[in-house]
Amino acid sequence: MEIVGIGTEIVECLRIGRLIQKHGEQFLMRVYTEREIRSCQARKRPLEHFAGRWAAKEAVLKCLGTSWRPGTALTDVEVRCDAAGLPQVVLRGAVKDLAQRRGVGAVLLSMASCRAYATAYATALRKGTPG
Fold first, then answer.
1. pLDDT of 1
2. Cα–Cα–Cα angle for 123, 36, 62, rounded to 5 degrees
3. Closest Cα to residue 118, out of 40, 25, 42?
4. Which phi-psi region, left, alpha or beta, contains residue 17 (left: φ > 0; alpha: ψ -120 to 50)?
5. How far is CA 50 from CA 70, 74, 106, in A?
6. What single DSSP character describes residue 6?
């Protein structure tokens, strides 16, 4: 398994809650895809899930060797769960282009949260490496 990069992030759930409260729908649409918003809102504790996805997006960007900056949309990183509930990363736009230039074929993701914090760890694998 050839690793291109790793990234990790931890975020306070209350910080994300304050951003949602202050900026509402504008914040949600800027950071999360419609699918992610529906998924988080359908959960028992949506705030933890929004915070987890925030952490995941930041961890994915870090493992690709970049950060959130002009020209990089957080919605270009989508976190979905497969049938078994495991997180899957879908890249689009400028982030997908960056991953392709770096030879990334897959991004593995692990997420965890509690009422206070959400954390994520992402590993970018070289194209052709089994994920």
1. 74
2. 25
3. 40
4. alpha
5. 22, 13, 23
6. E
Residue 48: CB partners within 8 Å, gap ≥ 6?
13, 113, 114, 115, 118
Distance CA 73, CA 130 (A): 27
Q: What is the mean pLDDT of each run of 10 residues along the chain (131 residues)?
A: 94 97 96 97 96 98 86 91 94 95 96 96 87 58
In total, the chain counts a number of residues equal to 131
Three-class SS state of 7? strand
Asked if residue 120 lies in contact with residue 13, where contact means CB atoms within 8 angstroms, the answer is no
Q: Is 71 left (phi over 0), alpha (psi -120 to 50) or beta?
A: left
